[in-house]
Amino acid sequence: LLHSLAQAKMSLCVNSHATPLPGASMELVFIDSIEIAPQSLRSKAAYTHQPPASVFERAVKLGEAAGIVSSYLPDYNQPAEHPSSISMSSIPYIDSPSVFAFKISYGSQVLLDSLMRQGKVEVHASVLAQFTPKIVREVSVEIVGQQKPEEIIVLIAHVDEPGANDNASGCGALLEMALTLRRLIASGELPRPARTLNFMWVEEIATVRRWQKSTPRVFDKIKAALVLDMVGEDVVKTGGSFLIEKTPDPSAIWTRPPDEHTEWGQGEVAEADLRGSFLNDLFYAACEARARQTQPPWLIKTNPFEGGSDHVPFVHNGIPAILAWHFTDVYYHTSNDDIDKVSASEMANVAVSVAATALFLANCSETDAVETVRLLSKRAAWRIANETQNNLRSNDSSENRRILQAWLKWYEEAFDSVASLNLGAGGKALAAEIRRAQEGLNRLANER
Q: Distance (Å, rounded) from C-alpha 196 to C-alpha 171?
């Protein structure tokens, strides 16, 4: 028995059909080094080291294979070092013919490869599955704001992946935040926030898209979104460090030191899509404050916008959103993403930072807004100095000017974005601080 549902729930690929009862036995054919002729795999199983979806057209639609067996694991999962890991995967959905796909571990791959070198190999596959329409059930709870209840701060985690870190850790941290804030408000230890806090447990990406389409007027009142996805990694066991994936700034297009992308890879961002925002530096500051309270100090890193989680639809609709996550986790999307890889202290660090940021945004007075502009001004000065140093290492003067101008524009817009947070009356002090920040930024630019 190579794998069973009880042993590894991820072994069966999404969109697999049932096999005839009590299962089906068939020859296993290694397809990575052969040309597949039409119908040449009929009543056989295609074996591959590639992702099952990538061979589906050749193996199933051309060769008419009854099923696929794949041992593929991305390099960042380190298959040789973790030979029992099986990665989550899927195949395209088709009504007919009925076809299944299994993922196997690297250890099983070594065994199968050895057996196939010795001669013909048969496999027996048994799948019980059915496709039925279902209602997507999600949970959304609110702490309604007392001053501007129509304005929303979203805290969100997706429920539709089966790992302990991805994303039970995000769901659990979000639940603890909601319960703790409710208790503190009910006891009088915290005032009810001025803006509404919306806690959401959702289908990844799809829920937010449905929300935007169904109630665009409500969606447009969102001030910011804080996304929790893989927030509990034990960094020693998994190798995944804590990361803040920033709402798109120029580093998403021009990635220069100290910025760097993760192994997830660069997302698609155009210069016209960049909108300066208060959120990146504000959330980073909240995480820094938490790190000063921990021993050893909590390690915080950032990465440019890449995509792939619930922050994407917010960003695409002009709403600032950050992703709190960990990567590269060697157990990411594998059968070994279990509770023993989760760190309670890491979850607490992320949850405290997210909750503090959400409360700050929900209660931002004019004094708070002024301090936010000052924070952004310091970060802008650092960024301009950093990009000036990067320019010295580049001979493309035209591109250098373009990058510097992009950062100047981004921070000018970031200063302006703070005005939307101010709950205070008047706003003269904030307006004056924004002018000072922008004038200081222009002086820095002229000096360079």
A: 20
